[in-house]
Amino acid sequence: MAPPLLALDGIRLTFGGAPLLDGAALSASAGDRIALVGRNGSGKSTLLKIAAGMIEPQDGEVFRQPSATVRYLPQIPDMDGFASVRAYVEAGLGPADDPYRATYLLENLGLSGEEKPEALSGGEARRAALARVLAPQPDIVLLDEPTNHLDLETIEWLEEEINRSSSAVIVISHDRRFLERVSRATVWLDRGQTRRLDKGFGHFESWRDTVLEEEERDQHKLARQIVREEHWLRYGVTARRKRNMRRLGELQDMRVRLRGHRGPEGLATLAATDASESGKLVIEAKAIGKRYGELVVVDNFSTRIARGARIGLVGPNGAGKTTLLKMLTGELEPDTGSVRLGVNLEIATLDQKRAVDPEETLSHFLTDGRGENLVVNGEQRHVVSYMKDFLFKPEQARTPIRELSGGERARLILARVLARPSNVLVLDEPTNDLDMETLDLLQELVAGYAGTVLLVSHDRDFLDRTVTSVIAPDSGGRWVEYAGGYSDMLAQRGGTKLTDRRKEAKTATPAPKADAAPAPAAKAPAQKLSFKQKFALETLPKKIEAVTASISALEDRIADPAFYTRDPGGFQKTIAALDKERETLKTLEDEWLELEMLREEMEG
User: Fold this and answer.
1) Choices 1.10.260.40, 3.40.50.300, 3.20.20.10, 3.40.50.720: CATH for 281-507
2) What percent of the chain has pLDDT over 90?
3) Was domain 531-602 assigned CATH 1.10.260.40?
C-alpha cells in the first residue's frame, strides 16, 4: 500500500454544543479517488478545510507529506484583487508549473481569461476556480461541491479530467452520477465520526443502511442488558449480601453510553401545498422564438404540456434554459409565436438565484412577516413546527439567514416555496446545495406531485428519477423534446451528448433573422376541418372561461362558513352543482384539445 500523502486522525472540533468533529479520520495516497459524504451541517467542509490547512483542529493529528502540493476548491471562490480571470488562475501556479496548462484549462472550461472577476456568473466563477485548482497538477486536490452551478458539458469534462489525473482527489458533492463515476473509496462523516468504505459511491447507500441497522440492534441489546443488570441490582442474592462495586460501575457506564448515543439525524418532511386542480391543458407554445441581437436563443419551438407532466430542461450554461422556462410560464414575452396558459393555474417558483435578505430571520422569511403562523395545506401551523419538518431547530427561528450554511439556506427557500398553494411547480436548479437524503425526498415529492412540474437541472440522476420528458437544445436556437429522462434522451440522440451537438452548432448554418421569411417547405395538400369543427374550436374557449367562472363562484359560496348552518339543503345542492361543472370543464377541455391536435395535424 502506498504511503499516505495526507492523514488526519482523531480530529476533534467543537463550536459550542455537541462536537462537530469527534475523532474523525481521513487519509489519501497517490491516485486515490475519495467521496466524502454526509448530511448538511455534518462538518464535511470543515474537515476538508482542516485537510487543506485552513483550520486548526482542537485535538488530533494532521500529517501532510512535506513535499506534497495541496489545492482546495472552496464553495465560494475569493477573486478580490485580481484584474482578470487569467491573473487569478495563474496566481495558483508554482515556479516549476507549466503556464500553458492554465491556458488549456481555461479554453476547455469555456473561458478566455480576459473576463473581469466581478462580472462573472456563478457558473463562470466556479469554472475559473476549477482552472486555478487543477492548473498546478497538485499531489492532493480537495474539491468542495465542484459541480454546483456547472452545466452538464462541464460536469462530464470534469469527470474525464479527474479520471485522467494522477492526483489524489477528495471530493464533496451531492451529484450521485458524478460521485459514482469518479470515486473509488467513500468516507462517511456521521455524527462527528468517520467510517471508510474501500469502494466507490455506487456501493455506499446499501452499506450505510447496513451500518445503521447494526447500530440499532446494538442499542437494543444494550438497553436489554441494562434492564437485566438493574434487575440484579434490586433482586440478586449477591446484591442483597454485599455490593459488587465492579458490576455497579459497569452498569453506570452502560447507562452513560445509552444516554449519550446520538442517533442518526431525522429526515426532512417535504410536502407541497396543493391548490385546486388546474385544467387539463397547462401550457401551449406555438412557434415561439427569442433573440438578443444576433444571438438566437429559442427558434420556432412548439410544445403542449398537459396536467401531470414533469418536464426537464437541460443544456449548457447560456443555452437559454431559463429564458425558455420564463416564456413557457408567461413571465417573459416571446419575440415571435405565442404562449397560451391553461385555466386555474397556481404557480410556485424556486428561482435559481434564490435572492434573500441575509439579515431577515428564518421565522420572518417563512411567514412573510405575518406573525408566528402560516397556513400549509389548509392547516394553520406555528412557524417553529413547520421549521422542524425541514430539520431546523426551534432556537433558529430568530437566527438571521446569513448564519445558515448553503444547504440550510437551500432547505429554507424550498420550505417557503412548498408552503404556497400550487398546481404548477417551477424549479430552477433545485438540487444545488441539498444533501442526498433531502434530494431523495425532493425526488419523491416531484415524482408524486399531483400537478405539473417544470424543472431545470444538471443533475442527471435526479432527472432520470423524476421527469417524463426532456427538452434539450440543438443547434441555432432549436430545442427538441424527448420522451423519458436524461439517459432516455441520450439514447434517442444515438448516444450523442449535448457537448457534441453544441460543437456542431459552431459550424451549423445560422438561424434566419426574425425579419427573414423562411423558405416554404413542400407538403402534400392538407385536409380541412369541417364547418362544425371550426365553429367548435372558436367557441369552446369562451365556454371554458364561462364554466371556470361558474366553478369559482360556487367555490366562493361553499367557502362561507355559515352557509351549511344556514341552509344545509342548499349547501348539498351547491356541492352537486360544483361536481357537475367540474366534469363539464373536463369534457370541454378534452374536446378542445382533440380538435386543436387535429387542426395542427391537418395543417402539417
Assistant:
1) 3.40.50.300
2) 37
3) no
